[in-house]
Amino acid sequence: MNFVKFRDVVKKYDTILTVNHLNFDIAEGEVFGLLGPNGAGKSTTIEMLAGLLEINSGDITVDGFSIRKQPLEVKKRIGIVPQELAIYEGLSARDNVTFFARLYGLSGKLLKERVDEALRFVGLLERAKDLPSTFSGGMKRRLNIACAIMHRPKLIVMDEPTVGIDPQSRNHILESVRELNRLGSTIIYTSHYMEEIEALCSRIGIMDEGKLIAIGTKEQLKKQSGQEERLVFEVERSNAQALSEMTEHPAVKRCEEQAEDKTIEVVVKDSPSVLQDLLFILQKHGIGLRKITRVEPNLETLFLQMTGRKLRDE
Ligand SMILES: Nc1ncnc2c1ncn2[C@@H]1O[C@H](COP(=O)(O)OP(=O)(O)OP(=O)(O)O)[C@@H](O)[C@H]1O
Q1: Between 34 and which of 17, 190, 204, 214 could a Cys-Cys bridge form, CB atoms 3.0 to 4.6 Å apart?
Q2: What is the pTM of this model?
Q3: How far, in Å, CA of 22 to CA of 34, rounded?
């Protein structure tokens, strides 16, 4: 069943279409990645879904409820982890989560249980009494997550939750996304980091200038880019016989020698099985090997092809 539906969603600032007729669905149980450069319209989309920003036209439904007509039903089902930290520096970690739990109508024993559960989940139970001002940036981000999940929402929306944090907290957050999904929540995760989206998400939407320019599984998107997997061998010398034997291997689609760089580039169908065979051919002809690189198709290249620009400014 399609759990989240975007139907012709438009958001304008003055005359600029910040979100330009979005139409896509997210199934229950998915980890859906929204990938796009800064300013693509990801946060605007998320804020409309969470009912924090008015939609100009179109509608978004969650679990069959319209954000325009039944916003409270939608909000009950969503936990939103905003890009900007939404925690109170003057309240302890526990009091922060408790504050949000009360907003969701939790009270008494259940409230305490859920607050503890959320703090434990993000690895902050031991620091529950401490003020966020004593926390690292990553710990604050984790507290931000605890505040969004204590009511066990069916849909968790995370807007760039790993920007500017240390690698340990980053890994902790990525692992908690997987765990929340295993526990049954559907996840929407926005990022401009291609690697994160690739590692986490079962399906990906690529946004640019307010439009969804591509959608599909990683494999579908990579296929769409028309790229192929390549193995690049840096060799000590070239040998025509070896090259010809490599070309004739049934799992090799193309094989080209770049004589000036002393490299052989091989486009393959299935690298694990063919690699051994190709190494054997080089060895048989006494060709020393300096380096092998495996070049996989990636979403960055797809983005570049579709927009003529890089996903991230370097
Ligand atoms: N309140 C506003 N008034 C006018 N323009 C706005 C407003 N909020 C956002 N925008 C513009 O809308 C566009 C999309 O912004 P948005 O924050 O949704 O992008 P994003 O993909 O989330 O990027 P980032 O990763 O930088 O957050 C940007 O050009 C931004 O300047």
Answers
A1: 190
A2: 0.82
A3: 12
Predicted pLDDT at 262: 87
Q: From the CA of 13, how far away is ligand 1's center (Å)? A: 9
Atom of ligand 1 at shortest distance to CA of 13? 4
Domains of the chain: 2-224 (3.40.50.300), 230-296 (3.30.70.100)
Q: Which among 259, 239, 256 is positioned nearest to 247, based on CA atoms?
A: 256
Name the residue with the closest Cα to ligand 1, atom 9: 44
Q: How large is the ipTM?
A: 0.94
User: Does ligand 1 lie within 6 Å of residue 192's CB atom?
Assistant: yes
Which residue in the block uniquely carries the two structure tokens 């939790």? Answer: 106
Q: Count of CB atoms within 10 A of residue 79's CB?
A: 26
Six-digit token pair at 48?
A: 């409309």
Summarised one tens digit per residue, pLDDT across range 201-225 is: 999 999 999 999 999 998 888 877 7
| 43 Cβ below 6 A of ligand 1 | yes
Among 13, 191, 193, name the best residue to mutate to test ligand 1's pocket (greatest count of ligand atoms within 8 A of Cβ): 13
